[in-house]
Give the backbone structure.
Amino acid sequence: MNVLSAYSIKGGVGKTALAVNLAYALRERGQRTLLLDLDPQGAASFYFRVDCAEKFRMRNAHSMAAGFRRNVRESDFPGLDIIPSNLAYRNFDLVLEGMAKRRKQLRAMLEEFKPDYDVILMDCPPNITLLSENVFRASDIILVPVIPTILSQRTLAQLIDFFRDEELPGKRLRPFFSMVQKRNKMHREMMNALPELHPGFLKTAIPFSADVEKMGLHRKPLLAYSSACEAARAYRALCNEILAPLGPRS
Ligand SMILES: Nc1ncnc2c1ncn2[C@@H]1O[C@H](COP(=O)(O)OP(=O)(O)O)[C@@H](O)[C@H]1O
Ligand SMILES: [Mg+2]
C-alpha cells in the first residue's frame, strides 16, 4: 500500500482539486483507493457528495483508527472509498499532543487499512502543525501544488527548510505546478526558476482551467464530467508520473 498526500502550507493552491481528481485517476488505473479528507472544511467530501463523518472520540490511536474505520463510505465510483471530513478533526493537534509518539500516530492508524487498499490519499488542511508532521511521516509521497508565483516560492522554500531542520526525508516531497497560466510572464519565469529549489519537482503541470472550478456545480471529479479536457489530461498524466516509479503493491 502506498500513502500519498496533497499538502501545502498555503491554502487555495489546488490541494483538494488534486486529491479529488487523483483519487479518481488512481481508481481508473485499477488501484483500490481510499481518500481520507483531513480538512475540517470538508471540500473533498463535498465534491464526492459524501456527508460529514459521524463524530467519534479521539482518545488514542486505537479509538481514532476505529473512528476512521466506522466512517469509511463508498463513493459513487466503485473502487474509490472516502473517509469524509469531521469537524472533530479541528482538535487533531490537541489529541495528538497528548499521545506517546505523537508524530507517528497517523502512520500507525493507516496500517489498519493496508489489506483493503492499494493507495491511501490524504487531502490536508493548509498550515504546518503536529497533524502535518504526522502526514509527513505517514506519507510515501507528499504532493505539493505550487502556483508559479513569488509567494509560492517562499512557502515551498519554508517547507524544504523544515524537512531539513527536522531531518525528514526531503525526497518524499514532490512539488508540481498548479493553476498554470502559460500566457502569464511571471508564471513562465517562475516555472524556469523554481525547479532549482528541489530535485523532486514533477514534470506534469496542472493548467488553470474554468473546467476545474465547475467541480462545485457538478459535485464530482473533473475527470468524471469533462474527461478529455486539458486539465483532466494533466491530472491523468500526473497520476501516471506518480505511479510509474512505485513498486508493486504490497
Ligand atoms: N487548475 C485549476 N484551475 C482553476 N481553478 C482551480 C484549479 N485548481 C483549483 N482551482 C480552484 O481554486 C480554488 C482553490 O482550490 P482548492 O483545490 O480548493 O485548493 P486548496 O485545497 O489548496 O485550498 C477552488 O475554487 C478551485 O475550484
Ligand atoms: Mg482544500
In short: Residues 15-16, 39, 43 surround magnesium ion (ligand 2) (CB under 6 Å).
